[in-house]
Amino acid sequence: MALREQWRSRWGFVLAAAGSAVGLGNLWGFAYRASEGGGAAFLLLYILIVLVVCLPVLVSEMVLGRSTGSSPLLAPVNAAGPRWSPMGWLFVIAPLGIGSYYAVLMGWTLDTLIHSIFFGLPSNLSEAETFFGSISSGSSVLLGQLISLLLTAIVVSAGVRGGIERLSRLGVPILFGLLLILALWAATLSGTWEGYRTFLLKLDASQFFNPSTIRNAFTQAFFSLSLGIGIMVAYSSYLDKKNQLPKEAVSVASIDTAVGLLAGMITFPIVMSFGLKEVISGSTVGTLFISLPTGLGTLGLTGRVVAILFFALAYIAAITSSISLLEVPVSSIMDRLGWGRSKAVFVSTGLLFVLGIPSALNLDVLGKMDSIFGGVLLILGGFLLSIFLGWVVPNRFDEDLAGCNSNHRVRRYLKFMLRWVSPPVIAFGLIVSVVDLFQN
Ligand code: PFF
Questions:
Q1: What is the pLDDT of residues 231-281, one digit of tens each?
Q2: Max Cα–Cα distance, the chain, nearest Å
Q3: SS3 call for 191
Q4: Residue 1 pLDDT
Q5: Between the CA atoms of 52, 56, 57 and 63, what dihedral angle is there, to the nearest 10 degrees?
Q6: Over the stretch 390-423, which tens digit does the pLDDT of each residue have?
Q7: Strand extents, DSSP E, 64-155
Q8: Which of the listed residues 325, 377, 385 should we mutate to test ligand 1's pocket, taking the one with most ligand atoms within 8 A of CB?
Q9: Interface predicted TM-score (ipTM)
Q10: Which of 202, 225, 287, 411 has the fewest beta carbons under 10 Å from its own?
Q11: 235, 324 Cβ separation under 8 angstroms
Q12: pLDDT tens digits for range 210-225
């Protein structure tokens, strides 16, 4: 058997994992979920969930990948026997589901970038409707989806080091720099404080008990960290023993949360300064594809330059995420069927395209796919992972982390959280999310 590829360096892995985490979910999901009424309560819940629940699960997902050296499809079976193969299938099906509609959103992002460069942006809400219609319907959507999948496929077929690591090393720092610049620019707008206050700082304690706020916080935490569905299993299977996984997990979660906040600090001032508050609440995609282009469209040349930078960075962020979604089926096919990378990429990309067509043609389908694959399944996967590494194969967790010399107190803390805190808290989040999903 050919030797498994390895990351070139510690930072290569961290940037690739952060690249997967940072994506449209940070730029679009964070702002819209924060704007759904949760305000500071959403933000606090989100941060708490990341710290208390997601970090131990993130480490356990990484341990599963590294200790088995297997793809997400086979890792649970290789760790605990064939009874666990449904978990492996969940790890393949969920990324395929997300990858299918994610490419559609990438197509819209590309189309918005092209509009910002060549045709200009809407400058009032009625123009915005037409604009949104033009990027989200018609054959251009399928074209955008196809181009995005092809770009993703090119990177993934170049391999772990030559494709995924190389793009992430370049893309993630550029995107972080651009975000910082844009957040500083947004801080000079007239509605800045009003934007921060309304969406991020205003605390309404009753929101802690609102099922939709709870679901939003759980979904955002898991989606944004690409957690619970095998992405980190795939990426960590290319690691050697040197990486201290708890440290890497903290780096990934910090970069991801910082990007979500920075994106909010760009979006909310624009929304407030240009009176677009109504557009963003109640619309999943309104923030990124209606409010932002319209706000920037009213600002003349400056707005256009900002829009070009913002949508270019959104597209980079999206590609570093979509490559991770494609890597899961690709590595699983290579592992299970012994195919070469190019053939596995070709077949998986074709499958993603076909699966994405209903989302490309119908907004409601896209929304449903996002609620199920991008929400409930990730939380379910997180629950299974915490049971699996906390209870089913706990020695694997200890041995792997001992092998990379991570501090034994950190290890004990993580193990405790994984066994006793994550399962009940995630189960609670899952139940609230499912009930809320059916009610709304
Ligand atoms: N985390 C990515 C984002 O925030 O856009 C999207 C994503 C990638 C979600 C991979 C889930 C996943 F497994």
A1: 999 999 999 888 899 999 999 999 999 999 999 899 889 888 887 776 655
A2: 61
A3: coil
A4: 44
A5: 170
A6: 999 999 999 999 887 778 899 999 999 999 999 9
A7: none
A8: 325
A9: 0.99
A10: 202
A11: yes
A12: 999 999 999 999 999 9
pLDDT of 279 reads: 62
Give me ligand 1 centre to Cα 103, in Å.
Answer: 12
Domain boundaries, the chain: 10-96+162-281+328-439
Asked if 163 and 157 count as a contact pair (C-beta separation under 8 A), the reply is yes
- The predicted pLDDT at position 2 comes to 54
Residues 214, 429: contact at Cβ < 8 Å?
yes
- Residue 22: φ, ψ to 5°: -75, 120
Distance 222 CA to ligand 1 centre (A): 8
The pair of three-digit structure tokens given for residue 418, joined into one six-digit string: 């994984």
Q: Which atom of ligand 1 is nearest to the CA of 317?
A: 5
Write down how long the chain is: 440
| CB-based contacts of 329, cutoff 8 Å, min separation 6 | 92, 95, 96, 344, 348, 351
Residue of 352, 356, 394 lying closest to 63 (CA atoms): 394
Residue 5 backbone class (left: φ over 0; alpha: ψ -120 to 50; beta: rest): beta
List residues near ligand 1 (CB under 6 A).
Answer: 20-21, 23-26, 95, 98, 223-224, 226, 229, 231, 321, 324-325
Average pLDDT over residues 142-159: 98
Q: Give the DSSP letter of residue 83.
A: G
Closest-CA residue to 143 (of 405, 361, 386): 361
Give Cα 183 to chain centroid, integer Å.
20
User: Best mutation site among 223, 287, 315, 380 for ligand 1, i.e. most ligand atoms within 8 A of its Cβ?
Assistant: 223
Please tell me which residue, 272 or 315, carries the higher pLDDT value: 315
417: Cβ contacts below 8 Å, ≥ 6 apart: 52, 53, 55, 56
Residue closest via CA to ligand 1's atom 12 equals: 226
373-393 average pLDDT score: 96
Ligand 1 probe mutation, 33, 50, 98, most atoms within 8 A of CB: 98
Residues 409/29, Cβ–Cβ less than 8 Å: no
Task: Output the average pLDDT for the chain.
Answer: 92
